[in-house]
């Protein structure tokens, strides 16, 4: 058979030129949107001489920053929380969902291939209304030309969503770590406070026994015995309240590490000294731009903002036509035995250009919605930046003022301890009343407990500052904590 000369359709070259021209109009990747916030050069509460600059990356490894508190029990709790905390598991699952959505979005840009097979039986008017069997088998392919960048924009937006979820996972991890450290240090401070109350209770019971002996000897009135018993019972009630509070913190810590509260126990090690007794480690604040670069929640808000900007371009691209190229090839026959014969081959190619003319305002509404989501994302990003600065300034101010408060409180503890010792000696010699001794003991206990609370607030502010700065930093762990607070001083009555 002679070869037939194929004539190339005249419309192909102009169509190719048109496709290249339209591709030049495709939407470009969205740039990082500017933030119209004045960037402070320094933190108001920071000491310039102590600043250090951290690498500006929210994906930077935070390390085991809680090790600066030099507590092996805390190290173990943080490790267990990283493995079992349910908030972390939820954030990881959402990240996996975002990655799957990204893969699904990128699949729309790839060549689509498929196999087809079918069988049908129907009447054919050309055959006198007799039933005709049709068997088909073949393959099909389709590819959408992304002339205006709609598919590329969707892929970039999905990629930014993945990055935002990665940052949120990092943020969740940081929050969980800070909660574990803060709860643990609070529990240890409560153990120290409970020990102070127990020591004071023992001193009050000694005073009660002494008062009862003096009453039996006729030296004091029954009113003094009643006062001593009242003070003992009141302090016992305070000790029980502290025990209840400790149980609640222990249960909260169990939830953070992903374990049942019924099987979780944390021993009281206050008698051997604890991390709550040590001064808080110094934390370098860095520079404000470092905070923006390191905080994962700020990074997540920024990437959500950039994804919203991409989706504005996607919505605007809906006004332009879609061009899809298709091709198919295979076999068709009325008999199964002839289905794969060369003479039964069939093929087809095509191009589909679609452009909605009237959609009732659907595309315009899509653009307006995308722009509104962009405005909302920008507001969230601005708010997250402002919150970041506020949290750092709050913790820096808190640490500065708490250090001054602790120094003043230590002086109060020393004076109250001296007053208790003098009052105990004078009471045994009959020079002062029991009221003066009880008042001195109450004052010492109150000041010692307040000192523990201030020290605990320093530790909590340190944890809060680390969290506000976006994680750990290069620091040398402090030395082992000093000896625990002494019990209330003063000569014990015999």
UniProtKB/TrEMBL annotation:
Coiled-coil ranges (or none): 225-252, 389-448
Leader sequence segment: 1-30
Main subcellular location: membrane
Membrane topology: Lipid-anchor
Region of interest: Disordered: 270-289, 470-494
SUPFAM superfamilies (UniProt xref): Outer membrane efflux proteins (OEP) (SSF56954)
Location of the protein in the cell: Cell membrane
Biased composition (Low complexity): 475-487
Gene Ontology cellular component terms for the protein in this record: plasma membrane
GO MF, any single term: efflux transmembrane transporter activity
Source domain of life: Bacteria
Listed InterPro entries: MdtP/NodT-like, OMP_efflux
UniProtKB keywords: Coiled coil, Lipoprotein, Membrane, Palmitate, Signal, Transmembrane, Transmembrane beta strand
Gene3D superfamilies for this protein: Outer membrane efflux proteins (OEP) (2.20.200.10)
Pfam families: OEP (PF02321)
Family: Belongs to the outer membrane factor (OMF) (TC 1.B.17) family.
Protein name as annotated: RND transporter
Gene expressing this chain: oprC
